[in-house]
Amino acid sequence: MALRADSNGIDASLYRKTGSWSTVLADASLGTTAAQEAADQLPAEVAKTLKSQQADARDIAAMTEALTPAEGLRAPVARCVAVHEGQVVLNELIPGLKVEHTSVDVGPFPNFVSLARARGGAFSYLVAEVGRDGGEVHLYNTTSPERVASRGIVGLPEETHVARKVPGEYDQPKNQSAAEEMARRNAEEVAELIREMASETYVRLIVISGDVKSRELVSDLVHTSLKPLVAMLDANNRSGGGDRKAQDAEIRKLVDNVTAMDLQELSDKVAAQNGNSKSHLALGIEQVVQALQQAQAEIVLVSQYQDEHTLRALNAEPWLAAEDDPNHAEAVIGQWPAPEVLLRATALTDATIRYVPDGLLPDGVGIAALLRWPRNAG
User: What is the CATH topology of the domain spanning 124-262?
Assistant: First the structure.
């Protein structure tokens, strides 16, 4: 994965690899005859372009193999592939991204700008579907509607639903107590499964659905540190009578609410610094470049992509420089569009990058950075 999990950043280790990179961003949608024909022709066309850019023969071969058309993907969807010294380092689909023209880059570092723009602010979340006899916990990421992983706890229905097996026995305190105890043990196991999956993958939301008693029981047993992430969903698909589309729509609302709160938090931080002599805020590309050069930027915020600017990439700290900067001449490896150089420097200085709605940043600027220490610090 090029994107470091849930950091909204890029894995800096990829940028530290020396040697040549080949990166391709292409349309990956199928469903029509024209789309299928384009997908079939893509590997040969990309190979031709890579050859014209003097890409390594090993990279051309690896890229051609990696671009084998996927099946069953609905438009719009893009594919980002990065190859380094004959090895496919990244091969990911980006649902929702429409690519009009295939982009092919060959150079000393990969071009992950489109991937970062599509996945900035992405996060993982859990959906637990519970019942008296156990439940399933599904892991999702906002980058795709597909499940990332699923695990389940299966109790013994004959023990938790005694009333259905032995009519007239369920009202006996002993049998009812045993059934309730079994349901509680199952809920404890589901709650523990939620804790395990949440610890393995940093999550921002935990949705619990199922019959009222079961979801309340599981919610009560969820680890204290995770309780602020829990959202209850009034749906019960485990019984087979739920409306899956309606449930998915409600989950999307919950996910969108987390994203909205995240953006609001960023907006509040920017506003607070903007009214505080901008001490922890860099505004405009010049100040952001200076902050990145000092590894001072913590979060780079981009509302306008800065495509009109060009920056120099360096092979060592401070990793980037302005186009007219007379310093660091011995470290310059070339000039590229600002978005590529900014993204690389953000990763190499262990900062994160967020692409935010236009209007979130003050003074009409298109790029800013929240800083680790004040700009006027010595």
Answer: Nucleotidyltransferase; domain 5 (3.30.420)
